[in-house]
C-alpha cells in the first residue's frame, strides 16, 4: 500500500479547546502524525487515532524549543514516511504562525498541502472580552502587529499605527510593553485606553485594563506575564469594567 503524503496546517484557536473548528477536529482525527506547539491545548490530541504519532515541537512566544528549520524537516520526513501530517498551531497558522513558510517548504517536495484556518487571538480574545476591534464613529480599522521582529527589535509599524485612530493589537509584544507605551506617550496619548489579556480563553485568564499612563504600574501590580496580547485604542473603553478605570483616573 503506497503512502499518500499530505501536510495540513490546522489552527487550534486561542486556547479554549472548544474554539477549534469542526473541520480542524476532523483533520486531527484523520492524522497519522501530529506536530503541535506549546500554545495548543493538549485536550485536542484526544481526538487523534490511537496509533497517531504525536510530537511536541514547542514554540512559545519568542522562545523556540525546536528550530523552524527542524520543524520544516520533520514535516517533510513524516509526510513521506507516514502519510497525513497535521501541523497543529495555536491561533491561526497564517497570523504570525509561520504557516506560510511551512507550506512553502513542504510544497518544494511535491507534497499535497491544505490549511484549516483558526481563530486568531487578535480577534478571538478581544471578542470574548466584548472589546469590538471596530466600532462606528470610534474605530474604522484595526492593525495586528508583532511586538518583536525576528531580530528582536520592535516593529516599526507600531510607530505608524500610533499615528492613526485604528485599534492596535500587538501579539508577542508583552516583553516590550514599556517601549510600546513610550511610543504612545510621545504622541501625547496618555489617556488612551489599553488592555492586556494573559492566557486568554482559559480558566486562568487574566485581564488588565488601564490607560497608556498607568498600564505599566497596573501590569506590575496584577503580575501579568506571557503569553499575553496588548490592545490599544478607544474601543477598549467599551469593556464592561472600564468605567471603573476612568473613575479611578479622574480621582487621581
Automatic annotation (TrEMBL):
Under which pathway is this protein filed?
Answer: Porphyrin-containing compound metabolism; siroheme biosynthesis; precorrin-2 from uroporphyrinogen III: step 1/1
Keywords of the record, alphabetical order, are: Methyltransferase, Porphyrin biosynthesis, S-adenosyl-L-methionine, Transferase
Q: What is its EC number?
A: 2.1.1.107
Q: Which Pfam families match?
A: TP_methylase
Q: One GO molecular function term?
A: uroporphyrin-III C-methyltransferase activity
Q: Output one GO BP term.
A: siroheme biosynthetic process
Where the record annotates domain Tetrapyrrole methylase, the positions are 6-215
Could you tell me which PANTHER family the record lists for this protein? S-ADENOSYL-L-METHIONINE-DEPENDENT UROPORPHYRINOGEN III METHYLTRANSFERASE, CHLOROPLASTIC, SIROHEME SYNTHASE-RELATED
Concerning its family, UniProt says: Belongs to the precorrin methyltransferase family.
Name it.
uroporphyrinogen-III C-methyltransferase
Species, as recorded: Sphingobacterium detergens
Amino acid at each position: 500500500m503506497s503512502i499518500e503524503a499530505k501536510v495540513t496546517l490546522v489552527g487550534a484557536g486561542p486556547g479554549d479547546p472548544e474554539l477549534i473548528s469542526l473541520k480542524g477536529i476532523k483533520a486531527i482525527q484523520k492524522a497519522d502524525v501530529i506536530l503541535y506547539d506549546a500554545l495548543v491545548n493538549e485536550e485536542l490530541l484526544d481526538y487523534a487515532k490511537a496509533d497517531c504519532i504525536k510530537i511536541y515541537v514547542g514554540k512559545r512566544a519568542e522562545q523556540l524549543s525546536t528550530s523552524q528549520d527542524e520543524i520544516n524537516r520533520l514535516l517533510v520526513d513524516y509526510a513521506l514516511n507516514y502519510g497525513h501530517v497535521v501541523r497543529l498551531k495555536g491561533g491561526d497558522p497564517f497570523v504570525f504562525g509561520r504557516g506560510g513558510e511551512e507550506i512553502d517548504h513542504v510544497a518544494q517536495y511535491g507534497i499535497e498541502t491544505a490549511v484549516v484556518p483558526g481563530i486568531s487571538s487578535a480577534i478571538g480574545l478581544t471578542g470574548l472580552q466584548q472589546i469590538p476591534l471596530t466600532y462606528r464613529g470610534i474605530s474604522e480599522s484595526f492593525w495586528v502587529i508583532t511586538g518583536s521582529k525576528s531580530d528582536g527589535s520592535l516593529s516599526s509599524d507600531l510607530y505608524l499605527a500610533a499615528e492613526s485612530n485604528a485599534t492596535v493589537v500587538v501579539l508577542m509584544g508583552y516583553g516590550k510593553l514599556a517601549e510600546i507605551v513610550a511610543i504612545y506617550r510621545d504622541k501625547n496619548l496618555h489617556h488612551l485606553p489599553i488592555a492586556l489579556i494573559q492566557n486568554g480563553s482559559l480558566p486562568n485568564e487574566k485581564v488588565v485594563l488601564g490607560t497608556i499612563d498607568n498600564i505599566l504600574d497596573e501590569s506590575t501590580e496584577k503580575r501579568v506575564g506571557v503569553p499575553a496580547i496588548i490592545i490599544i485604542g478607544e474601543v477598549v473603553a467599551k469593556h464592561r469594567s472600564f468605567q471603573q478605570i476612568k473613575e479611578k483616573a479622574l480621582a487621581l
